[in-house]
Amino acid sequence: MGRRLRLRGEASLTLLLSAALGLLLYAQRDGAAPTTSAPEARGRPARAPTPGPRAFQVPDAEAAPPVYEEDKPEPPTPTPTGPFDFGRYLRAKDQRRFPLLIDQPHKCRGRPPHLLIAVKSLAADFERRQAVRQTWGAEGRVQGALVRRVFLLGVPGAEGGAEGRAVQTHWLALLRAESRVYADILLWAFHDTFFNLTLKEIHFLSWASSHCPEVSFVFKGDADVFVHVGNLLEFLASRDPGQDLLAGDVILQARPIRKRASKYYIPEAVYGLPVYPAYAGGGGFVLSGATLHRLAGACSQVELFPIDDVFLGMCLQRLRLTPEPHPAFRTFGIPQPSAAPNLRTFDPCFYRELVVVHGLSAVDIWLMWHLLHGQHRQACAHPQPVTAGPFQWGA
Ligand SMILES: *[C@@H]1O[C@H](CO)[C@@H](O)[C@H](O)[C@H]1NC(C)=O
């Protein structure tokens, strides 16, 4: 009874937040909406462009029937807008400590979690946060291991002026309400832009290192991934949290892009070496508690670099630590599932063998979760999770 009431209360709050979000998006639809998804670049092909946030409109009785847009995922991470001002970046990069506007001081109090899940998110991406909360990112015990979750956010919208400030005040109120319901929002006072993801990285590392000092492992990723937490825990079962570990989709010998037109353009004055240090793709990687503390220290001494996962590679290099490639972290290279059920990638057996899959919409995440965990799950020919050996199509 009490639980039912609580659930109903939670459901109506969710509805309320969704409605408020819809209104805010509607009000902002003429603003500079990001139009492309974060490019993978660094020598990799960019993902297909995705439409900006969809606006909800009151149906007009006289108008022609509405044409629905294709259901493509919205950008999960902030996207670069226009050419990057390196001069400004270099001048501003000594300012690297911003206050925490929304904290979760109790996240790791009491029993320390075995796994802390940290997901990069944008204020407007409430829908994906909901999908993650209610599927793979659920808090509680998974195979006996205590799992906790936080979302990492900066302040949305870069425009100044009275109107910009009013919009930010609204967002702050919404996010505070969301934090009261779910207790999983971390919001810092820097602008949530693509080139500020490095700030998100260092602020999260120092927060986790001081607020969750006894956590065994941390998974950090994007909000558009599907994580098979069971497989992840199985992979971690043989690992010692007191030893160094950072595993994921490791990229070796990536060359800085010197073409001015690229969104990933890095002038030689900013990075002079021919290749980047080995780094794990920011879509999703896992690290041990020991590495968390060492990285938090190392990253606070490395100069800011505008590409967050390369920056983390620089911190690792400082520690003389090599990221460990894991074949089941597919943060790149798998075609996105679509609503077409005949696609191979929508086969739950395919997901059963992976740890991380990238590039999913909220609906994809829901669907995959229910196919994997629902009552109608089918028997797979190869139910064992991948533990060793490279992943192969149709294996
Ligand atoms: C990062 O955030 C700060 C503080 O909000 C802002 O002044 C700066 O312009 C942002 N930097 C980039 C590269 O977006």
UniProtKB/TrEMBL annotation:
GO (cellular component) term, any one: Golgi membrane
Pfam family for this entry, one: Galactosyl_T
The keyword Nucleus belongs to this UniProt entry's keyword annotation: no
UniProt keyword annotations, A-Z: Glycosyltransferase, Golgi apparatus, Membrane, Signal, Signal-anchor, Transferase, Transmembrane, Transmembrane helix
Domain of life the protein comes from: Eukaryota
GO terms for MF: hexosyltransferase activity; UDP-glycosyltransferase activity
Its membrane topology: Single-pass type II membrane protein
Chain segments carrying region Disordered: 33-86
Enzyme class (EC, first level): transferase
UniProt record, GO biological process: poly-N-acetyllactosamine biosynthetic process; protein O-linked glycosylation
EC number annotated for this UniProt entry: 2.4.1.-
Stretches with biased composition (Low complexity): 46-55
Protein location: Golgi apparatus membrane
Xref: Gene3D superfamilies: 3.90.550.50
Signal peptide location: 1-32
Main location class: Golgi
UniProt record similarity statement: Belongs to the glycosyltransferase 31 family.
Name by which UniProt lists this protein: Hexosyltransferase
